[in-house]
Design a protein that fits this description.
The complex is a heterodimer of chains A (169) and B (164). In chain A, 36% of the residues lie in helices and 20% in strands. By secondary structure, chain A is an alpha/beta fold. The chains are: A alpha/beta (169), B alpha/beta (164).
């Protein structure tokens, strides 16, 4: 039984990670790291009892001026802060493997892993990408050991790293 | 209960075309209809509706629904498959402003056409007929595909790589 870190943003990516977790629960020790959006806060998932939240550094009802700033510099600042979040989390948990479908928080998580922990890391391209890779994929695939796409048409974009082994549906 | 969902992603683009028609249909059915309408400003008159629900609450709605009517998003499809719920899917289209990137919902719909337990509806005028057919027994639970077994097998293989 290996310890597996599942890294995901909230929303559709989480649904995909959950579909993977559903099959692996019981076989491996899974824990989830997810962005702390209101829709997922304090949630209970039968497959993954252990959930860590990557903090969001803005409030949901910030003024337009703050939102404007956030769009321009907030993303970068947040990414840097998340580096510390993941360095601390992976130090504590020591996962054997990492799996992500994206988005956002996968970038700092996989960067921290690449720099300090070097555990085998898998990037799964989203089921919603039938023909073109996602921005997260272009970044995170470079920090991953293996890349699984769910549609063969996306394979060429990932060169030698890309693999196709079917899909979640 | 029929659970209607237009997803929570897509950067908050509404999908009024589906919501308005499902509300109209709800007024002509005995079955309870619950719509997760997202950012839409349209207030359903006949169906119950919520703007957004929490992720785990949405799972509970998928689980308790008789079947699902939704946009053709990967999340919606996977959640319906998770609880083996029959689904009627209406793909969003870029052309009508229902998606802003590419027509991946049409592409996904094309791939899912003919799958057991799945009905693709492109024009909402055909939706009522599909819903009535599902209510009168045409709805069968979708089965896990061989592609999924292969995919999970590959992930198992990745997790069995010996530690360095």
């Amino acid at each position: 039984m290996a310890k597996v870190a599942l890294v995901s943003s909230a929303g559709g990516h989480l649904t995909e990670i959950l579909a993977i977790a559903q099959e692996l629960a019981g076989e491996h020790d899974l824990f989830l790291c997810v962005t702390n959006y209101p829709a997922v806060r304090n949630m209970k998932l039968e497959e993954i009892p252990r959930i860590y939240y990557a903090p969001i550094f803005w409030r949901e009802h910030d003024s337009w001026a703050l939102l404007w700033l956030r769009q321009r510099i907030g993303v970068l600042v947040t990414m840097v802060l998340w580096l510390f979040t993941f360095a601390r989390l992976f130090w504590k948990e020591r996962p054997d493997f990492l799996i992500t479908v994206g988005a956002e928080i996968a970038v700092p998580a996989y960067l921290v892993n690449r720099l300090f922990f070097r555990r085998p890391a898998l990037y799964v391209e989203s089921l919603a990408r039938l023909h073109t890779p996602s921005l997260t994929g272009r970044l995170v695939s470079r920090l991953s050991n293996r890349v699984f796409v769910q549609w063969p048409a996306v394979l060429p974009y990932y060169g030698k790293k890309g693999e196709y082994h079917g899909r979640l549906i | 209960m029929i659970f209607v969902t237009v997803g929570t992603a897509d950067k908050g683009i509404d999908f009024d075309r589906l919501i308005r028609e499902m509300d109209r249909i709800a007024g002509r059915l005995d079955e309870d209809v619950l719509i997760q309408r997202g950012p839409s400003d349209y207030e359903p008159r006949y169906a119950r509706s919520v703007r957004f629900v929490r992720f785990d609450e949405a799972l509970a709605l998928f689980r308790t629904a008789r079947f699902v009517v939704g946009h053709c998003g990967a999340g919606t499809v996977l959640n319906a498959l998770r609880y083996r719920k029959p689904m009627i899917l209406v793909p969003r289209r870029v052309e009508t402003g229902e998606l802003d990137t590419d027509d991946h919902q049409l592409q996904l719909a094309r791939e899912m056409e003919g799958m057991e337990g799945v009905r693709i509806v492109h024009e909402v005028e055909k939706l009522e007929e599909a819903v009535r057919a599902f209510l009168s027994g045409a709805a069968v639970p979708p089965k896990p595909s061989p592609e999924k077994d292969r995919f999970i097998g590959a992930i198992r293989e990745f997790l069995s790589t010996p530690r360095k």
